[in-house]
Every structure is written in structure tokens, then in C-alpha cells.
What does this fold into?
Amino acid sequence: MKTRFILINTSHAGNVGGTARAMKTMGFDDLVLVAPRWANVLRREETIQRASGALDVLNNARIVETLDEALDGVAHLCATAMTPRDFGPPTRSPRAHFAELLGAPDMPLKNELTAPVDHGPRPDSIAFLFGSERFGMQNEDVYRCHVALSIPSDPQFGSLNLAAAVQLIAYDWREALGGFAVQSATAEPQLADAAAVAGMLKHWEEALTDIGFLDPASPKKLMPRLNQLFNRAQLSPEEIHILRGVAKAMSQKTLRAAGKTAAPANPSAEQ
Amino acid sequence: MKTRFILINTSHAGNVGGTARAMKTMGFDDLVLVAPRWANVLRREETIQRASGALDVLNNARIVETLDEALDGVAHLCATAMTPRDFGPPTRSPRAHFAELLGAPDMPLKNELTAPVDHGPRPDSIAFLFGSERFGMQNEDVYRCHVALSIPSDPQFGSLNLAAAVQLIAYDWREALGGFAVQSATAEPQLADAAAVAGMLKHWEEALTDIGFLDPASPKKLMPRLNQLFNRAQLSPEEIHILRGVAKAMSQKTLRAAGKTAAPANPSAEQ
It folds into this structure.
């Protein structure tokens, strides 16, 4: 869905750069600045530094003088407002509003102040409006919007940084749109099957008996406890191999110390 | 639940301040820095500036030399890792992992790479580990963790700012813990009842006839269309009052221009 981020009267160049980066991480690139403090804000050093590679978002950004000029082609307007005012669109949390807007009324809506609004047809375009760092959004800009999004935050300290607020809204909106797949940061875990775990436990039972930790005449609950532990650990085939190696070494060391010779390892039993 | 944020080898003072602010907005205050680049990072100007009032988090923060010293009293360790490595804990999205960790297995888990892990008992404490801005987390630190959290982001540009990543994790974790209530930024909307809407529409029907826009002999679908429009608009009692005033003015102006005199307004008929 066509998605635009609009920053109104932004004063810190770093926040413009941080906004560009936050948008890009969530796959958005339509940025409009309304009357920013610095006319050259898109080219300032701090902006570029904080954008950290999201230069295409900065290059495509538009600077306009009035909010009117920023709203072409956008059907649904979301104010972001933290300070209370006595009039305006209904206040909603981003997640609840997005779920409802995209037609998922059966999702649990928690912490909602107001009943869901009947939006009629689903809009095909959306804009998120952010006010200045110091004063937030002006009343007359909030009045133009369909909803006032409020990020649920500590009532004692609700002061989010501007770029951080953009990051949260962009994240929630992207997730509501279906989300990006999680990038695997580690190799896919492979689970050993239950037979391999049982074989390993049998191996350990013998080894623990060899080292005198388990008394076969009074085994108590030791093996079931280890079984539970290893079930929770969700062992991989490699880890089964390691644990069998440990069991083998326990037995060999003990039997050798006792002057006996352990049976040579049978590779086929190692699995 | 006891919640700690651990920054390892952080090099930018601004990110430490931004982290403190992000934590505080979501109601967290336990920050530990492991071997930061600047020994005096908690007192640097940029830190304090970006913390923007979250000074208590900075004042309570600890600086330690090794990750070991940062882990006292924490049961469940979450790495945050974006770059792939060939070994380590399973990769999960924050929302899915938190929902499962807190015992909500019936929540829809989308974009999951791996089957949910059986965590056994719910932990009573958690730490989120963040690596350096430039190199992320070291392998040996990831290996100590129970899970690698990966924030779903654009595969072409997954580079989140450190403080922005802290903000997202803190937000998702707070929401998973039950969330803060949404602060109402606007007055609670009050809905006019259907009788008031019907009375207003009757008033408009007369006025639209008076101004010649509605032909009672051929009304077409005008009034049902307006009825639908005003239903979607979810009118308040004040708005009913305004719309009745508009209708009255239409009639009066037209009848006066035609040399007739409109009946004096009857206040009791105004709602």
C-alpha cells in the first residue's frame, strides 16, 4: 500500500537522517518534509550520517512549505499525538488501528480507549504525520486526520525520540502489512530423533554406573530426570555424538584406572 | 519481570543516551554497558542530550569489563543478531518469541523459521544483548544465549540503528508483558443516537428541497446516500447541532431571498 511519512517543522537534522534509515529498514521510501528548520536539511552532514546508507530515501524526499502540498494522493491520514487536546479524531494504538484498517477485526484489541471505528472501504494509501520535536503536532494539523495514533508508553515518561517513533510506526505498519521474513542469523537447528536420544541415555546409564554415580540397585529418578533435561534441550545429532563421546570417555577412564580394559568402541553403536 | 538491557562494546555515546530514553519510554531501567568505547560514556554531553530526561537510567547504569559480570541474576538471554553465523541458538522474531515465552502458544506465529521451542518453566528474568554498532555481537557471546532475536526488516537494508533496535525490542517486550494503556490524545468521542441522526436528516431533506437541490417528485437516492455518509461519519451530538444549523440557514436564506419568511427557529426542535 502507498505509504508516506510526513515530518512537519522538524528541527534536528539527525532526526531526518534517522527517519530515512528507520523507513528504509521497514521497506518504505516516500518521505516529505513540511517547512523544516533547515532548508538544506537533506544535505546536512548530520542527516547523512544518521541516515547510514538510506541515501535514496533522502534523495527522493520532497521539501514543501505547507501540509496541503504534502497530502496529494493520500487517502488516510494518521496523526501521531501524545499531548492531550480537547477535540480531534479518535485516539488509537498503532497495532489495533492497523489491524482494523486492514480488515482484521477479530484480532484482540487491547488497551483500546474507544470502540473500533467503521472505516468503510479500506483505503489504498496512508500517511503518517509527525510534528516538531519540541511542540508536537499543531491542533489544526491533527484536525485534518482520520485518527490520532498514540504509541503505548510509560505514562511517567512518554517522550519518544522522533526517529524512534517513526521506527515503531514503520515497524507496526510493516508487520500489519504482512511483515518481512525473519532473517536467519544462525543455522537451522536439526533435531535428533527420540531413538537417538534413548540410545544416548542408555550409553550414559552404563557410564554413570561405571563411574559409581548411578547405583543400579537404587537408581532413584536419575535417568528420568536426565531424560527430561535432554528433552528440553532439544538435542541435535551432533550433540548426541558429543554426549556419547563423553559417556565413552567416562567408562574408559574409570575402567582403565581400575585395571580393566574397556571394550573397544563399536562405531556402529555410535550411530 | 526483571528485564535488563546489555550493550556490548558500544562506540557511539549518542546510542547510549538513545538507549536510555528508549528503555524509559517503555518502563525499563536496568542498563549495563560491557566495555564501552568511552569509559566516561554515561557522562558525555551527547549521551545526556540524546537521553532527553532519562537521566535516572544513566545514573543507575553499570559499566563492567566482561559479559560475565553483566549476567548476574538473569535467567533467559536473548542475543540480537542480524549477520548469519553457522551455529548458535535458534533465530526467532521478537513478537513470536515473547508470546511463546510468556505462555501464549495460541497466538499466530508468522514468518517463523523454526518450530516453537519448549522452554519448560517460564523464566523470571530476561536480558537483551546488543553488540557494537560496527560489528554486532561476537560469536562467543551469541553462543551463550537461549535465542537469537532478529527484527524482521527489509532484506535489502536490515541495518537498524542500535538505539532504534533497543526501542523496537523494548516496545515488543512491554506489549508482550501486557502493555501500557494508550494515552488519550483527544477527547473521547460521543456518538449521537440514531434518532438524532434521523431528525437531522429530515431537517436536511427540507432544506435541500428549499434550496432546489432535492426534487421531492424525483428524489432519487440522495437521502439514502447522505444517510450512509453520515452513518460512516459517526456523528457526535455537537455535529448534529452544527448540521441542523446549516440546514436552518439554507432554508432561511433561500426563503428570505424569495421574499418569504422562515418560521422562527424552535430551539426544542434543534435536538
About this structure: Confidence is low (pLDDT under 50) at residues 105-115, 265-271 of chain B. DSSP finds ten helices and seven strands in chain B. Chain B has two domains: 2-176, 194-269.
